[in-house]
Every structure is written in C-alpha cells, then in structure tokens.
Amino acid sequence: MTFKEALESGKFVVTAEIGPPKGTDISETIHHMELLKGKVDAVNVTDNQSAVMRVNSLSICKIALDHGLEPILQMTCRDRNRIALQSDLLGANVLGIHNVLCMTGDHVSAGDHKGAKPVYDIESVQLLKIVDALNNGRDMMGNELKGATNFFQGAVVTPEANPVEPQLIKFEKKVKAGARFFQTQAIYDIEKFKEFMGFARRFPVKVLAGFVVLKSAGMANFLNKFVPGIKVPQELIDELKAAGKEKALDTGLNITARHIRQLKEEKICDGVHIMAIGMEDKVPIIMERAGLL
Amino acid sequence: MIITKQKDRDKLMECIKKHDKFFLIGCSECATLCGTGSPEALDEMEEFLKGQGKTVTGKLVPKTGCQTLGTKIELKKDKEACDAADAIIVMSCGAGTQSATEIFPDKPVYPANDSLFLGNMTRFQMFDERCSLCGECVIGMTAGICPITNCPKGLLNGPCGGMSDGNCEVSPDIPCAWVRIYERQKRLDNIEEMKETIEAKDWSKGQKPGRLYAKKQKEETKG
To answer: Tens digits of per-residue pLDDT, B117-154?
Structure first.
C-alpha cells in the first residue's frame, strides 16, 4: 500500500525523516533507511535543511526508493527558480518519486553559505499550483507536457504560530492550491492541537502531526527560545527535569509515544510525522511504545 | 530616496591610490539627506584626502546628481578644476556616480559611497527600505505594504513557518511583513482579500537594464 493509499484508506500513517549527509559517504543514511524499512509508511527527505548545503533531496529519495522505502521529496523554493523547480519535479517523477512536500525553505542566513543569493522566485502556495498543473499535463505557463506527472502533493503548517490567523489563511490557500496532505511543525500540546484540527477538519485534506523527541529539559527550553512555532508546555519540561539526566531521553521517548497514542486513539488526526534528527534508531522504539508496531 | 553610506576609507584609498589630484562631486538630493554627499561631507572628504597627501582641485554639490544633463551644465563653471584633476570622486549614489562616468569620458571616476536601497527616512538619518523597484507594484493587493521588500524571502502569499511572535526568522528586529499586512487588512476590514492567491510574479517586468522614455509612452497611451 502506497503512502497515498494508506492515507486514503483511513490507516493511521507514520512518516519519518531522513536528512541527507554533507558529503558523499551515505553509509549512515542507508543504515537509517534499513532501520525504518517496513515500519513507516514513507520517509521525508529534507532539502538542504536549515540552509546547510548537503546531498540533494532528489538523489536520496531515489536511494530510498531503491532500498524499499517510499520517499516524500521535500522541495523548497530557496535555491531554485521556477524553471529548475519544474525540471526537478519532472525528473523526480520519471525516477519513480510520487510524493512531494512543497515548502518555502529556511532563509540562507540560517545556514552555512550566508552570502548565497536567496532565490524565492516563487513560494510554497505557487509551487503547489505548479505541481497541480504538472499533474494535469501542463507546465505553469500552460505549455503542454509530453506525459503528465502523478504527484501526491503536500504542504506544511505551523499550528502553534503566534499569531496563528495569518498561518491559517495560508493553510486555506495551500488547500485551494492543491495540497492533499499536511505535515505540521512539531507539536507538544495536544489540547491546542485539537483546536487546530477543529479548523483543519473543515477541509478535505489529511493531517500528520509533527513530532520532535525531547532529549532533555535543556533541549525543550532551547526549542522554546529559538525555534519559531514550537511551544513546549512547562509541565513537559518539569516531567523531563524530574526524570533526571540518565532517564531524560527515555522520558522524552515516552512523552512522544504517549502523545502519538492519544492522537490515534482519539482519532484527532490522520497520522504522525516523526523528525528524529539523528536518532533514527529511536523511531521504531517510539512506534512500539505508541502501539503502532 | 536612494540610501547610501560612505565606503570604508581604507577601501576607497586602495581604489584611488594611483591618483593624486581629485575633483569631488556630491548631490543635494538623497545623498545630502543621508549625509554622504552634502557640502559638509565634501568638506570632510577634502580634509581627509589632504591628510593622505592628496590634492582636491575643486568640488561641487549639483542639484540632482543623477540628472546627467543638468549636472553637466552645472559643472561648466568648474571646468578648470575638473581639467586639473586626475580623477573624479563622486559622493552620491551609483546613478550619480555614473552621471560623472558619462560626463567625463577621459577621466577615471570612483564612488565614495555604497548604494544600499530605496527607502524612507523614518527619523533623522534613520532609513528603512521600502521598495525593491520590481517593475510591477503588488501593494494594491497587500494592504499597501510591500512583501517583496519587507519580507527577506519576498513571499507573496502569507508568512512562512519562521515567523515567531510577529517577527522574522532572519532577525527578531524585523517585524514579519505578513503579520503587518494581516493586521492592516484586519483594521481595514479586508481579511477576505488576504485569502486571494497572488500568482507567481512576472520578473521580466523588472528586467535590467531598465529604460523608460516617458514622453513617448505618454503619447502612446493617449493614442
């Protein structure tokens, strides 16, 4: 069953994330793929995340495909103009990649090439429209394609943005532009997420809640302070603190598993997206504790 | 106006090291408001150059440095001083500097300033960028606030995920352009307009080098 079929069947889906390496040694990447194979429904492959130059998403998507994983190509508008984006989309499709996640992309000032010229020729809403056009056999200018793409296209949303209203307006635009599924920024407050889902459920799209495992109280404070759109509630920070240094990570895994279990049992959303960020080996543990394996 | 700042003096000296005698040109418009091309700025530059063992043969603050013909006419009275100079130093924007390039075909021309952006003076000698000269204005759709200029990503359809408490991911000193647009649309009771998708921009409208013959265009519009 493909990622799209899984979502459409009503199965509670799980996606994970693969961050391409900086350099040509892909042994660790392949090791992570082996860990996730047969457990998750699809893997997102990030696109020069945090504007740090790495192997491109497209190549690692193809390698994931060859290793029996279904890839979701993350595509940002930071580094390519509309010609390059469309060309890469066609290229991805002919390589057998059928899922794409359209995003704006972190600004170059966050990364390791701060003097780079940011492109942003188009942005996420317009990119979704482009994917829709390609799926209908036309490029964005209306020129006919010899063979249409068959992408299942998604987008991102930050449910805990402050203020949230402009984010929700953009969510609506993304739905109208053709987004079929959404993966969210990391969430930690299930009650607040339920409020967001109350809004999102008015639209015919699937929503996967984003998770980043808390390794320690320090990490939670760091996320609160430096990562836009992430709010870790104080009670979770206290829980991590109480666990002590030795058991903090284990507690973080339990928190994630507990939240995922609740989302599934209460049918709050359609699945989860686990961003392990270097702890890919922990994904199966989380899934097991959440009752998903 | 065009916002300029004075170049680092070491860099300027590196550029002009092979010349000894200079004529200085400022500008009474933007560069004077920025304090980079005013009569006082030219005096100060003259003192600096003298201190470096150089000679200043003359100086002029033309009315509008980027008005090439007008500046050429104003410079007529300084012909001798200009002839005596090995090179011209221009203390205005890049456009004013290139007026001098056209006026002096046989003399090297050096900019003393860096041109930064098109912006507004919000307080005395405090400047904020407002316009990117993109060739086709969008602010009629964005509550009169330019997202191409005020958002570091130039996004046309709402804030990115990097917005935090109303500020930009690039710097907390930058208010998120799309939160500003949202607040203003709300105030104008115009939130529905924010739900309209703005199509991909036609960047060919701003293709370089720009050229406009306003008189001809006016005649064509009439016709």
So the answer is: 999 999 998 999 999 999 999 999 999 999 999 999 99
Report the C-alpha gap between B78 and B59 in whole angstroms: 8
Tokens 């519009």 identify what position?
B221
Residue B222 has pLDDT above 80, yes or no: no
* Structural contact between residues A47 and A75, judged by C-beta atoms closer than 8 angstroms: yes
pLDDT reading at B53 higher than 90? yes
Q: Distance between the two ends of chain A, CA-based, in angstroms?
A: 16
**ipTM value:** 0.95
> Residues A129, A133, A139, A141: is their CA dihedral positive or negative?
negative
**B53: three-class secondary structure by DSSP:** coil
Domains and CATH numbers, chain B: 2-116 (3.40.50.2300), 132-199 (no CATH)
Size of interface A-B (CB pairs under 8 A): 96
CA distance A67 to chain B (A): 32
The helix (run of H) or strand (run of E) holding residue B9 is helix B9-16
**Cα–Cα nearest to A43, from A273, A282, A269:** A273
Report, in angstroms and rounded to the nearest whole number, the Rg of chain A calculated over CA atoms: 18
The CA-atom distances, in angstroms, between B143 and each of A161, B128, B188 are 22, 18, 8
Structure tokens at B166: 């109303």
Per-residue pLDDT band for B223 (boundaries 50, 70, 90) equals low
Query: Is the distance from CB of B64 to CB of B70 less than 8 angstroms?
Result: yes
Neighbours of A91 (CB within 10 A): 12
DSSP classification of residue A145: P
Cα–Cα separations (whole angstroms), residue B186 to A162, A168, A220? 16, 14, 34
Contact B161 A228 (CB under 8 A): yes
- Fold held by A13-214+271-278: TIM Barrel (3.20.20)
Question: Could you please report the per-residue DSSP string of B164-220?
Answer: BTTB-SS-TTSB-HHHHHHHHHHHTT-HHHHTSPPPPP-GGGGPSSP---HHHHHHH
Chain A: residue nearest B196 by CA?
A173
Candidate from A107, A120, A167 with C-beta closest to B170: A107
